[in-house]
Amino acid sequence: MTVKTRFAPSPTGYLHIGGARTALFNWLFARHNKGQFVLRIEDSDVARSTEESAQAILEGMSWLGLDWDEGPFFQSRRFDIYRVHAERLLDEGVLAYRCYCTPEELKERREAAMKEGRPPMYDGRCRQRSDAPALPYAVRFKVPPGATSFKDLVKGGVSFDNSQIEDLVILRSDGTPTYNFCVVVDDATMNITHVIRGDDHINNTPKQMLLYRALGYDVPEFAHLPMILGSDRTRLSKRHGATSVTAYREMGYLPHALVNYLARLGWSFGDQEIFSPEELIEKFTLENVGKSSGVFNPEKLLWLNQHYIKSSPSGELREEFLSRLKALGVDASADPRLDAIIKTLLERSKTLAEMAESALFYFVEQVAFDEKSARKFLTPEAAPLFAELAEGLKALDAFTEEGIEGAFNDILDRKGLKLGKLAQPVRVALTGGTVSPGIFEMIAALGRERSVKRLEGAVEFIESAGGGGAAGGGN
RNA sequence: GGCCCUAUCGUCUAGUGGCCCAGGACGUCGCCCUCUCAAGGCGAAAACACGGGUUCGACUCCCGUUAGGGCCGCCA
């Protein structure tokens, strides 16, 4: 039997971190076992579902690289299938029945029960009803007595007493099917072999198993993944910060970093931390999924992101980098320095957003001097150094890191200075601030023209500042 | 309140009865490297929730307590 898993989100919001991990584990399990992965949109609650959410979820999946073999199926387009199944149960007479209680009545009873400390379960009062008033009715599944247990692939043995399970509604009074019923009909008719989902669904499992049996279908395997919690150990939600996959994309995270992080949250393979998607597929098994919930740790994600950025070939990030620059007002698509520039930024950027921002100085016409840095480093003593370096750079045969270093060393030797005494002022002259990539690689990437111009501009700046001139920039 | 699940460093985790006075990673701190910032290297602090069993021997098995989470909808 070939393995078939599914991811079945409800389109009531964006793809969030928890959903993404559920999708990932389903995908990994299917790929590892050379099986199929199905995407199904659970929009049986038509009122709450939106087209945009469904679209956002598909985009999130694609961005993460989680491709599906079948679907997306939409429950809203399968209502007749559910109705046929529900009627089958109703026809049997003993498996389902019509309930004429109104939602308002039910709510009242539930609240009363809660207040008295009783379990807020439906009491089954319409079970015995033999009349058929001309009133709206919902269809309820008649939960049989006994116990329902199963062997969860991550949690182990789980058992429920059926007396704890109420007669659930499978068809609303408007004729639409409910979640627990749709899931069963869908998973059965789509031949899902392994249901892998969040453990907030573990209580639904016995209800669904009972439904499978009533319908005469085989019960699939279940694997319930522990929840992802926020730093305060409650269910991860918006107030814990960014929780949507899209948000991480926008902040400049790489999909592999997110995938790697999510995989290691709840799953492990010895001491290994870094996994390519291929490696995850090869190594992923449900046995190595932990049973306990885990706290989402943005700092570790950030570390992974930095890891993936610094180990990316510069060409791989080019497009994304360009579009981020563009958003900052820089069109660098035709700039021949592009790859060299990216290379200088690779190992000092935690996100793509940060990378684009720290690249800005390479492209601006006028360097904006940071006031404090300028006061400290753009001094009258520095001016002749800049002039000399500008000459040295002009005279270079090859404008390479080695050549540039040579030009620096000439000056250093002549003046008897340490590199720091020259590099830091030069850094301010060229970038406007005191933080940048290594001085030689940075100058090589900046280019000869601009480096010389900016040095000369800094000399002018110093001279005019000496005469009381205003702060400005070099070229 | 009832039911279900869970319990190793701050966090993610390794550990499947002796290899563990518990290993790795993020984070934190210190040192080294160093032209700044990073990266990198080295090192440090940091955990088996508690109580009973079982066993020659428990982080590992069982029971209980405690704590956390989840679910109790004509939401999914």
Describe the structure.
By secondary structure, the chain is mostly helical. It is built from 19 helices and 12 strands. It has a 3-stranded parallel β-sheet, with helices on one face. It has a 3-stranded antiparallel β-sheet with strand order 4-5-8. It is elongated and about 105 Å long. The relative contact order is 0.08. The C terminus is likely disordered. It binds one RNA strand of 76 nucleotides through helix 4, strand 5, strand 7, strand 8 and helix 5.
* Helical fraction: 40-55%
The number of distinct helices, counting runs of at least 4 residues, comes to 19
Instruction: Give average pLDDT, whole number.
Output: 93
Indicate the low-confidence ranges by residue numbers: 467-475
**Shape label:** elongated
Q: Main beta sheet: strand number and arrangement? A: 3 strands, parallel
* Residue share in β-strands: 5-15%
Amino-to-carboxy terminus distance = 69 Å
What structural class is derived from the secondary structure elements?
mainly alpha
Give the C-alpha Rg: 32 Å
Strands, total number: 12
Biggest sheet, strands in spatial order?
1-2-3
Name some characteristics of this structure.
475 residues, single chain, 3-stranded antiparallel β-sheet, 47% helix, 19 helices, 3-stranded parallel β-sheet, 12 strands, elongated, mainly alpha, RNA-binding, disordered C terminus
